[in-house]
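Our preliminary data section would be incomplete without showing what the modeling component actually yields. Below, a chain of 363 amino acids is followed by its predicted structure, encoded as tokens that our downstream tools consume directly.
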Amino acid sequence: MGHRIEQIAAAIGAPAEGASDIEIDALAEPADAGPRHLAMAMKPEFAEALAQGGARAAVLWEGADWRALGLEAAILAPRPRYAMSGLTELFDPGQGWEAGIHPSAIIHPEARLDPGASVGPFAVISKGAHVGAGAVIGPQCFIGTDAVIGAESFLREGVKIGARVRIGARFIAQPGVVVGGDGFSFVTPDTSGVEKVRETLGDRGEAQAQSWTRIHSLGAVEIGEDVEIGANSTIDSGTIRSTRIGAGTKIDNLVMIGHNVEVGRDCLLCGLVGIAGSTRIGNNVVLAGKTGVSDNIFIGDNVITGGGTIVLANIPAGRVMLGYPAMKMETTMELFKGFRRLKRLFGDVDALKKTVSNTGAND
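Predicted structure:
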């Protein structure tokens, strides 16, 4: 069954105008929308495509003239993109998994599942693990010994949660997420070439080639409430204490977080971000795609990095950074402008050299 326009508007807290009893089955882009679609025409440039489709109703920006666009009804959202969050939740069909415990799942007798928890085909839940009420453990997931998964969490297919990991409520993990793998920690019996280079910034001294010995990860990972992790991202366990991810933080696909890292609340880590061990990141930090962060440094609250930024030193709170190495964005942009002028500058210098040379010859 569809949803009436008035029901949709009430669900997202936005006003509806026109024929509010029109029933909607799904969302669609304006050019693709049919009579039972709600067209997502949230900007004037999007609304131009309504004439190519057959939508009777659309989500529009505040103050839009929906009648002039040939519509019978409209939802006028003060912040249309924010309205998308409620709309997509309302129309999300889910993964189609059945509730309950699938007969092929392997659940240790000493594991605990709270009421309403579901476990999909071929999932494994280890001894001492605790799965909260209403949580969904998808097909082929693994939950390690003594791990805790919070209430109403949702683990997509193939998620792996290591031993002793503790995760808060409403956690979402996309396919292939791994939380609680061992940290990348290795040491040599004597001072290594890498350690020498870190001290000297170039001279490796008399350090000789040696074999690497692993340092075991005795810590785990602690994740707060309302955290989401994208497909094939990884979070390593801490060496002694746990790696920590603050509540409300959202992590994109293919993000790597090293051992002992601490990430604050409500951070946004975009695709291909890599954070080396023992780095501390404040609250409300945004690391754009392909940002790399060195080990043992601190990034303050509300910092934003542009795409491809490489952070090699501490960043104070509130800075906007870009480049390699990371600098204030306005500084980096000035440098980029300078780079573009170099060819012309070299040409000007060559011309001046010829002028000076010719002047000397005439003398």
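The mean pLDDT is 95. The chain has five helices and 39 strands. Preliminary results of this kind motivate Aim 1 of the renewal.
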